[in-house]
Write the structure tokens for this entry.
Amino acid sequence: MEEDIIVYSGRISSIRRNVDKQYIWFDIGKLEFYTDKDGIVKSNSSFFSARINRCYENKINIHLNDKVTIRGIPKGYVDKRGFRQNYIHVLEYNGISLNIDLEEKFGIDTDDTPLWDGKRCESILATKEEQDEMDQIIKSITGDANE
């Protein structure tokens, strides 16, 4: 089944990094003009909410008032109060393609530990023997092996 795609351009009017652990949410707004029934030109603000996976935060710099064009999948959900919320799940940001496969591999565990392909990304300290071995390798490279 083919998914619907939406393309939207405007300026970033708000950025929310505290909605959930996996996504950064932002609004893209623009001022649209129309002529009313009396021939008077009026303006109307419109906006779309969008979300982008946090794994792209270092690849894409998102700043307030930036002019952007996004391409993505229209999505929606019903919030806690029973209201329908619509947003765009971003696939492309200012011409930069975002890889959904990468996004599906990346995640955040309940204690904020990064996940990669479902596995926790935690550092494991080297044993004393491993540290001694690394010290010897470093000394052989730097010429300090005789010390």
Notes: Residues 62 and 131 are 40 Å apart (CA to CA).
